[in-house]
Write a structure and sequence with these properties.
- The structure is a single chain.
- By secondary structure, the chain is an alpha+beta fold.
- It folds into 3 domains: 7-153, no CATH class; 159-225, no CATH class; 241-279, no CATH class.
- Helices cover 28% and strands 23% of the residues.
- It is built from 6 helices and 13 strands.
- It has helices at residues 30-39, 83-90, 159-181, 190-199, 216-225, 262-278; strands at residues 7-14, 16-19, 25-28, 48-51, 58-59, 62-70, 73-79, 96-102, 116-123, 135-136, 145-148, 205-207, 213-215.
- The strands form 4 sheets. Strands 1-7-6-4-9-8-11 form a 7-stranded mixed beta sheet, with helices on one face. Strands 2-3 form a two-stranded antiparallel sheet. A two-stranded antiparallel ribbon has the order 5-10.
- Helix 3 (159-181) packs across helix 4.
- The protein starts with 6 loop residues before the first strand and ends with a helix.
């Protein structure tokens, strides 16, 4: 921070392809970023600094003084920032920065024909109570603006990172399949277990009692391996048929494709036994 009420620079956007908060896909080139920076006019259409992405009136905790592009990143310097807000930022209460852009054909766009910065939003904490702030009135733009979270335009994963993630998932899948073959987990949960295990950190360790340590991934898989079998595969010898008493239905003629009802079978056997005993 330099000077009273001045703050920055703050990285607010970068060139690339990404998804906005409404689910739309967009590609913004570095040339477009430079157009946004050069077209910004703090005197006639200043962009406020706000908390979150407000839809109606909201306090302005500062204003964007200027925009510039450096190595494909759009940066902003802020001015007239409230002291309480600046303190909250420096204390780390706001972990993310986001922006909203007017689309080129928006009716409220100060510079029709090109993207224009609508506001810069700080995310991650409740707005500090600052009396006397100038409210910003946001008109209903009818979908004419694009709000973006910082996470949405983070640098894309490298090809090596993508391949590593794919291989890690393959290993986790084989490990889960072994657990299924052992009967430790049910096949219906395979996809969920693979996804969860692949997301676990396999480098950072967790400490347990008696000084034992393990990574999150290793502990989770170890926990599953220690579970009792919930299902058995293959043929099972069930022994004597329950309630049969060792009897055979040699005295019955059952047509092909039919089976005898258990209750009827028991009654029939008892009746024939009585007949034999009574003569």
């Amino acid at each position: 921070m330099s000077g009273a009420g001045k703050f920055g620079p703050v990285e607010v956007f970068r060139a690339g392809s990404f998804t906005d908060m409404t689910g739309g896909r967009h590609t913004i080139s570095e040339a477009t970023l430079r157009e946004i920076a050069s077209g910004y006019d703090r005197d006639t259409a200043p962009a406020p600094v706000v908390i979150g992405h407000p839809q109606t009136d909201t306090p302005a905790f500062g204003w964007v003084e200027a925009l510039y592009v450096e190595r494909g990143v759009l940066k902003a310097t802020l001015e007239q920032t409230a002291a309480e807000f600046a303190d909250a930022v420096q204390a780390g209460r706001f972990k993310k920065v986001s922006i909203s852009l007017f689309v080129p054909n928006a009716a409220a766009n100060p510079k029709p024909g090109s993207f224009y910065l609508k506001h810069v939003g700080f995310l991650g904490a409740a707005a500090p109570a600052v009396p006397g702030l100038m409210p910003v009135k946001f008109a209903d733009t009818g979908g004419d603006s694009l709000p973006f979270y910082q996470d949405a335009f983070a640098a894309p994963a490298s090809a090596a990172d993508t391949e590593l993630a794919r291989l890690r998932r393959q290993v986790r899948e084989r490990e889960v399949e072994e657990l299924i073959a052992e009967g430790r987990v049910l096949p219906v949960f395979k996809d969920e277990l693979v996804a969860f295990a692949a997301s676990l950190d396999d480098t950072e360790t967790v400490s347990f009692s008696e000084g034992a340590t393990a990574t999150r991934k290793d502990w989770f898989l170890s926990y599953l391996k220690r579970q009792p079998k919930v299902v058995s595969f293959g043929a099972l010898d069930l022994g004597q048929v329950p309630f049969d008493g060792g009897r055979h239905r040699q005295d019955q003629t059952i047509p092909d494709g039919y089976s005898a009802d258990r209750t009827h079978d028991e009654l029939l056997h008892a009746a024939r036994q009585i007949v034999r005993e009574k003569g």
